[in-house]
Design goal:
Structural class: mainly alpha
Strand content: under 5%
Number of domains: 3
Radius of gyration: 44 Å
Largest sheet: none
Helix content: 55-70%
Low-confidence stretches: 107-111, 133-143, 149-154
Order of helices and strands: HHHHHHHHH
Distance between the termini: 87 Å
């Protein structure tokens, strides 16, 4: 608008967005000396000052960048009782068959306490059968003989019925580890042994009498797992494979 010298003076005076009385006086004198109308120059000078303040306000708003709060990263803690890979020492998920760190195959894992407890209860019941077959007691031996003779007609004996009751009333596991361990160990007991001709043989009959109650328990666990583990596709696939083995939809 004005010559370069006047524009340079104005730019220097307004660089900080503040125009002192001294700076205004000098600028007006320079403008008059250059032949510029004083009233016109003062109007332009005030307008330039206003624009500079607006520009500085916008720059200040842009520079103010909100810094998001620092979110601490959750550290991974290892429980003292967690299993570790024998090859690399990495922490093993309780259900893993391989180490996720080095792909080492885990061939031996301790049985889960849930299924262990059930088997302990069943073994205690079985031990009562052995106590009742003491050959030194002829009456007990005779009673056991008749019990075996009539079991094929009347169905499961007292010992088997006790076991069935324990299995039926045993709590359904609620954790992923317990469910998988339970199904892995219980599934063979939920399948019939032998064919049409051999399923009632001495070695298969007792097992097959217990199949329905084991199968029912497995089905209950699978239903529970499908609901509670629906967001874990890998484990859900394993659960569904167990379901196929007992012909469960």
């Amino acid at each position: 608008m004005y010559d370069e010298r006047i524009e340079a003076f104005m730019k220097l005076a307004l660089v900080d967005g503040v125009l002192t009385d001294k700076e205004r006086e000098v600028l007006i004198r320079k403008a008059v000396e250059a032949g510029i109308d004083q009233d016109e120059f003062e109007m332009v000078l005030d307008a330039r000052l206003f624009e500079k303040k607006e520009e500085m306000a916008e720059e200040e708003q842009t520079v103010k960048v909100e810094i998001p709060p620092v979110i601490p990263v959750e550290s991974k803690t290892v429980k003292k009782d967690q299993a570790k890979c024998p090859a690399c020492g990495g922490v093993l998920p309780a259900y893993a068959a391989r180490c996720t760190e080095c792909d080492f195959e885990i061939s031996e894992r301790d049985s889960n306490a849930t299924i262990q407890k059930l088997f302990e209860m069943l073994n205690q019941i079985e031990s009562s059968r052995q106590d009742s077959t003491d050959l030194s007691n002829p009456f007990a031996a005779i009673g056991n003989f008749y019990a075996k003779s009539f079991s094929s007609i009347l169905g499961p004996g007292a010992i088997e019925r006790k076991k069935m009751e324990v299995i039926s009333s045993f709590p359904i596991p609620t954790t992923k580890v317990d469910m998988l361990e339970f199904l892995a160990l219980a599934l063979p007991k939920a399948k019939q042994k032998g064919n049409f001709l051999t399923r009632n043989s001495a070695e298969n009959k007792v097992h097959n009498e217990m199949v329905p109650v084991w199968k029912t328990k497995c089905e209950q666990i699978i239903i529970k797992a499908r609901f509670s583990l629906k967001d874990d596709p890998k484990i859900l696939q394993e659960i569904n494979n167990y379901a196929l083995q007992i012909e469960m939809n």
